Amino acid sequence: MAEILRLIEPLSKTQQLGFLALVCLAMRENTTIEHQRDELGFEDIAWEIVSQTDALPDFEQLALVAMIAAGLGDTDTDDLREHNRNAE
User: Fold this and answer.
1) Would you state the pLDDT for residue 72?
2) Do residues 35 and 76 make contact, with C-beta atoms less than 8 angstroms apart?
3) Quick check: 21 pLDDT over 60?
4) CB contact set of 69 (below 8 Å; sequence gap of 6+)
5) End-to-end distance of the chain based on CA atoms, in angstroms?
6) Is the pTM of the predicted complex or chain greater than 0.85?
7) CB 37 within 8 Å of CB 19
8) In whole angstroms, what is the distance from residue 61 CA to residue 55 CA?
9) CA–CA dist 3, 9 (Å, integer)
10) Would you say the C-alpha torsion 78, 62, 64, 53 has a positive or negative sign?
C-alpha cells in the first residue's frame, strides 16, 4: 500500500479525487478499478496505480481510500475550483 500512496502523492488533488471515485465505483458496481477507469476515460490515472490497487483485498482498498481522503481533507475547495478552471 505504501507504494500506491507514493505513486498517488504527485497527482493533482482532482486526479486523487477521481481515483477515489474509481475505487468506490468499482466496489459499488462489483467490477474492477481498471474497468471503471476504462469506462469513465480516466486515462490520467496511471495504469500502475490501478493495477496495484485492484490487487488489494477490498478492506485494504477501503483503508487506502480513507488515507487518501484524509489527506484531501486539508484541501481548500477554492483551490480545486481554480485547478479545474485552469485545466479547461
Assistant:
1) 87
2) no
3) yes
4) 20
5) 32
6) no
7) no
8) 9
9) 10
10) negative
- Can you tell me the distance from the alpha carbon of 80 to that of 63, in angstroms, rounded to the nearest whole number? 24
Grid coordinates belonging to 52:
496495484
Residue range 16-26: average pLDDT?
A: 97
Cα–Cα distance measured from residue 13 to residue 9, given in angstroms and rounded to the nearest whole number:
9
Q: Write down how long the chain is.
A: 88
Which DSSP helix (H) or strand (E) runs through 22? helix 13-29
88 grid coordinates: 479547461
The pLDDT of residue 88: 61
Chain CA centroid to CA 42, Å: 10
Give the H or E element holding residue 28: helix 13-29
**Assigned C-alpha cell, 11:** 497527482
